[in-house]
Specification:
- Helix 5 packs across helix 6, helix 15 packs antiparallel against helix 16 and helix 16 packs antiparallel against helix 17.
- The chain is built from 23 helices and 2 strands.
- It is flat.
- Strand 1 and strand 2 form a beta hairpin.
- Helices cover 73% and strands 1% of the residues.
- The chain has a two-stranded antiparallel ribbon with strand order 1-2.
Length: 499
Amino acid sequence: MRDPAPWQKRYERMLVLALLFGVMSQYLFVGADAGISALLFVLGFYGLFFYSIQGRMGGFEKWQGRVSSGWLLFIPIFMLTLTYALYANSLFRVLNVFAIFALIVAQTALLTRSSVKPWYRGAFYTEMMFLSLIKPFAFIAVPFSVFNRRLKETKRGDATRSTLNKVLLGLVIAAPILIVVLSLLASADEIFFSWMIEIPHLLGRFSLGDGIFRAIVAAFFAMYTFCYIWGLLFHKSTDSFNASLAGQANVPPRNERIEFDPITAGTLLISINIVYVLFVVIQFSYLFGAANGLLPEGAAYAEYARRGFAELIMVSLINIGLLMCGLHLIRRSSKLAESIRKLSLTVLIGCTIVMLVSAYCRLSLYEEAYGFTQTRLLVHGFMLFLGVLLVIAMLRIWKEQFSMGKAYICVTIIAFVVMNYMNVDARIASYNSNRFERTGKIDVAYMGTLSTDAAPALLKLQARHPNLDGLNKVISRLEKEARADYKWQSWNLSKQRVR
């Protein structure tokens, strides 16, 4: 029998490392909240990943997947993973699971050239979903095949036993000797004996149900990770999606892009812009405090200013949809028509930016009246994010060769990381404390729903107002939450400060 190829020798070690990764994963997460364990988990995955793909990629093809954009993704992945050890915001702890997973899939695909699509095209993310959610399950039998092949080679080796066979044989021989030696040592030393009698107690702490659940979790992480990396190593360098479509009957090789007539589209945009320009005039009046004279009788200016920000956000999203259609679905024709198209889209963006500024101010006034919440702060951030996207779109209108897709993806990743590091709960507690100093109003019940991130600001408020109704109870709950079921895997800076 000929020796296996050099790359094939790594398969069994990959499987062993994947099993160890599964065991580590269940130890980090089962029965413990994610904390510093999230960082250890991601580091463990990358250790397995880079060991598996070192030197080669996609079977026996040379590895040429050192894409700079893939390496850059380490920055948001590391920063988002680190938030589990820094903050305790429950919303972002859930969102970051999906964000980190998506970023890791995109990065590993870029580094291994598992997709022929550019990363700034929508088709790339369709392939990422296939690569992460469907393709790994096609290789579910591979680990068993690798293990079965090892057993066959062990049985086939008559003269020289394999390393695994030697290890198993050594354990069998050592078992009776260990029993005798341990009995003698336990009789000779009371301290050693005390350690020995603790072993049954340690084993008694683990129930059968807990052990089965941990085994299932470990098996899931091990199998999925191994099969996912296997799918990265063995892929076709052709466009599988287009190839499958081309094989179907009556399917044209290239779909005709739907395009609107420039005159029709120009009329549509101009009509909408006329309405928006009139609306923007009112917004400017509101922003400069001159809208009092425009209000109907009996309407209060303060109440008017605090309403409508949700509606403005919806309109802004609709305008972004119109903008995308105007950029990509209007047929190019004469220079005059092109100028009208670009000017109309520019006016549309300008009006939308004014709407966002108005909505931002309205929400700020609403928070001054009713307090700060997580939803309201996130909406603030979302409006700023939309504003950046609109500025990018403005650049794209007048500079055709500018890649808006690349810019949007980069800005989205940066914005999500920034929102994680804003420490939303701490800001809410700080803003509401300052508002209490000015107005004497505070919703202590809502403050009680915040995470331990809010504890420093609440302690400062307690120092200034020790008799504030309900505040002591909120702080006691946060202290109890920080000390409850503490495990090292769940270490978190936010909870550590409270402890």
